[in-house]
Amino acid sequence: MNVAVVHYHLNRGGVTRVIANQLEALESTYSEKGSVRVAILFGGRCEGWPRGLSQRLHAVDVQLREVPALEYDQPGAERSKDLVAQLQGELRSLEFDAADTVIHVHNHNLGKNAALPKAICELANRDYAFLLQIHDFAEDFRPENYRYLCEALETRDPGDILYPSMGRIHYATLNRRDTNTLRHAGIDERRLHFLPNPVAAEYELPDQRSSRAKLQAALQLPDDRAFYLYPVRGIGRKNLGEVLLWAACHRDKSLFGVTQPPLNPSERHLYQQWKKLSAELNLPCRFEVGQIDTLTFEELLSAADAILTTSVAEGFGMVFLESWLAGRPLVGRDLPEITPDFVDAGIVFENLYERLEIPVDWVGSDHFVSDLYETYARTMESFGRVNHDHDLRDRIRHAKILDGCVDFGDLSQPLQAQAIRMICQANKLRDELLERNPVLARPISENRDLVRRNRRQIEETYGFQASGRRLATLYGKVLAEPAGSIGQVTGGQSILDTFLNVERFRMIRV
């Protein structure tokens, strides 16, 4: 069997890391039962590809092949018309015949390269077998990507082209939300597979005492302060305002560190607003700690007392696993769309909350509802939708305001900033907030048994051996499918409906 892995680039990022880990996982499987040839076809950028990986692999024969037409489409540039020719040329030169090759494509549906979805259909009609692994959706609050796909593919419903139905085209999802979304859109359940990301067994961290000393020197951190690390890029959905809220509640006894700034220019304004507010209120929050020259990322993990997460949306949710692998407890926001898969695997979360309750009187009930209504309506319009729901304001009020409180993650950036200022100015309000949200006041757990138990469960379910077996078995299923003609998914618009549901809408995401 041959595997052709297709992605736009191999720069630093989640998908590049997943691809590398999948190769490691396949190595653990094929080292026991033969070998497999893998070619990674990418646009040309490869700054994030791990050096020496190919040399470490013996049962997996890896080649990297540049396919220029796989690069991101450039604004105003003519879309590539020769992607099929370039892909087929590489497959032919590799001697990857359709009869014994699986083409594993990552994020074909994201709107980064409009030629790729059609190229998949053309190659599938030439009997190639595909596994389309979806990490993200253009429909999930990426209106620019979605509009671009509509324009480039000359359709009002790109779902008809993005999600073809055919025996030799299978889909892999990272969570049950995405699985259910594609199932409801009409993807045959037999060709729909749950494929969680593989993770390394555990981190090899440096000595905690020496790492802590280096952290204290770099950040002027007193000995008696707890250090919460939030290992993310500070983009909107990571909900940095909630980090500041934590810092405001623990300003005399803790320090909070965010590792990296956003790379996307459109995200930088909001990020700078949070940095400015933190400085104005003198909050114990430090930004870009991952760029401190004297500290490695492993030393930051080692020095941390706990890992914090406040994100309101994830594809896989690696932080829910990595904290335990690093031997650190996890605190912060739960994501009910994501974590049930982990809970089913036996992982226990003791210090997460689904909502961070803010009395709606703090921000004004009518102000909040109007703010969300107007932001949601603009978002619908950006996807080409018109709101015909005359009861939308009442639906928002009923869904978002519970027992006189609103979730902090549902507030806009200005309303989040308003709430943070209020608790900084009045200890009485801070005490009320802690009473309503006991996880905020709970001391960091020292439950080492829980850390060990969760680490063991993660290894059994998501480690390289389990992931390698899962992926190899899936490749075999895809390759065993008979060829057939391409059909359309009739419920493509239902995918957009699912993601644009007002009950899951968060203003900080748009």
Structural account:
This protein is an alpha/beta fold. The chain has two domains: 2-198 and 464-498, Rossmann fold; 208-351 and 442-453, Glycogen Phosphorylase B (Rossmann fold). 43% of the residues lie in helices and 15% in strands. The protein has helices at 14-30, 53-56, 83-94, 115-124, 143-152, 159-162, 176-185, 208-219, 240-249, 265-280, 297-303, 319-325, 340-344, 365-382, 392-400, 413-425, 427-436, 438-441, 448-462, 464-480, 492-499; strands at residues 2-6, 36-42, 60-66, 101-106, 129-134, 169-173, 192-194, 226-233, 254-260, 285-287, 306-309, 330-333, 352-353, 357-359, 401-402, 405-407. The strands form three sheets. A seven-stranded parallel beta sheet has the order 3-2-1-4-5-6-7, sandwiched between helices. A six-stranded parallel beta sheet has the order 10-9-8-11-12-13, sandwiched between helices. The chain has a three-stranded antiparallel beta sheet with strand order 14-16-15. 44% of the residues are buried. The mean pLDDT is 93.
Write the layout of secondary structure elements.
Blueprint (H helix, E strand, L loop, with lengths): L1 E5 L7 H17 L5 E7 L10 H4 L3 E7 L16 H12 L6 E6 L8 H10 L4 E6 L8 H10 L6 H4 L6 E5 L2 H10 L6 E3 L13 H12 L6 E8 L6 H10 L4 E7 L4 H16 L4 E3 L9 H7 L2 E4 L9 H7 L4 E4 L6 H5 L7 E2 L3 E3 L5 H18 L9 H9 E2 L2 E3 L5 H13 L1 H10 L1 H4 L6 H15 L1 H17 L11 H8 L11
Parallel strand pairs: 1-2, 1-4, 2-3, 4-5, 5-6, 6-7, 8-9, 8-11, 9-10, 11-12, 12-13
Antiparallel strand pairs: 14-16, 15-16
Helix pairs in contact: 1-20, 7-21, 8-11, 9-16, 14-15, 16-17, 19-20
